[in-house]
Structure formats: C-alpha cells, structure tokens
Amino acid sequence: YHVCEKEKESIAKKAAELIKPNTTIILLGGTTVYRICKYIKHMKLTVITNSMIVFKELQSSKGIQLVLLGGEYNRDEEELCGVLTNNNSKLFACDHLFFGAAGYIRNTGFTTSDMNSLQMYSECMALAKQVTLVFDSSKFEERGKAITVNNKELTYLITDSKIKDVYVNELKKAHVQVIVAD
Fold first, then answer.
1. What element of type H or E holds 5?
2. pLDDT category, 29, cuts 50, 70, 90?
3. What is the spatial distance between Cα 55 and Cα 43, in angstroms, rounded to a whole number?
4. Nearest by Cα to 145 from 99, 104, 111, 109
5. Which of 35, 10, 33, 173 is closest to 101 using CA atoms?
6. pTM for this structure?
7. Exposed/middle/buried for 113, CB within 10 Å: 0-12, 13-18, 19+?
8. What CA–CA distance (Å, rounded) separates 23 from 20?
9. Are 41 and 20 in contact (CB under 8 A)?
10. What are residue 132's DSSP bridge partners?
11. Label partner for 71 (CA 20 to 30 A): which of 44, 120, 162, 182?
C-alpha cells in the first residue's frame, strides 16, 4: 500500500478521467487500481472486480452495480482467484479494463508475480474494448514471473513523470498511448 503513494494517487486520478458514466469497467486487483475507486464512487457504472479492497470501497456507492467474479479468497492479495474466477472472467464484456502489473520486460510486455492469474487477465482482455495498465515508473526496473500483457495488447499505459524516455519510445512504437500523470 505504501510504496510510491503520491505517484499511485496521481495515476489513479488520471485513470479515472478515462471512465465514462453508464459504462462497464473491470477493475482487477492492486493498490493503484484500488485508488481509482474514490474518483468514480459518484458515477453510474457497472464495476466488475476480483478485488476485495475495490469491493469494500465501492459497496455503498448507490450508482454502481458491483459484480464480483467469485472464486477462492487469497488473503495475501485481498483478491478472489482460481478456477471460478477464471471461468467467470470469460462471461463479461467491458468498455474498459484497468489493472496493474509487477514488472516490465523490455520490448515485450508487463509481468505478474502470480502465474495463477494469467488466464483471468487474458480472458478479461479478450472482451475489453480498451485495456489500460496503471503502473508506477519504479516498476520498470522490476521483472515478474510471467507476461500478463504484451505491449501490443495495451490501449493505454498510465504512469508517472519519472518514466524514462526509452520506455516511452518503446511503448509508442507498439502503439500504446502513454499517459503521464502529474
């Protein structure tokens, strides 16, 4: 929760600006994704999630139809996961998918440290009109265990102003719209 807090907050605020009323969005786990919630609480939306912290944040928002993907509870990540989550993630089309990642592999894509979530991410991306990664720049120096999303699959990357030009250029070559939050 407490790493790069200022950056994550500005990234979340910028991500919320992409969300239009009366749309369906998927918010997959992570602390930056969780921070988006406070900027959309007042909106009329359908929000699909596997994240219990997203659920807790939005559960009393009257204009939000909240859908949990179901599954086994992972206490460490505060997320639902497993076979039920994977199967249910195949059922929902959305206007916009938002998620985070653990690291980056140059000229390839963004990674997760949880290989069990790969199918869920893939299923959600397949049915999303737009795919947005919220990712603080410190994670470009990290590597996860497996690719969650290839650069070419992303619509937007929202990051902070500390991102190095080399990464911006790589992503733009892959036709990713890089948005830098203040």
1. helix 5-16
2. confident
3. 15
4. 111
5. 33
6. 0.96
7. middle
8. 6
9. no
10. 98, 156
11. 44
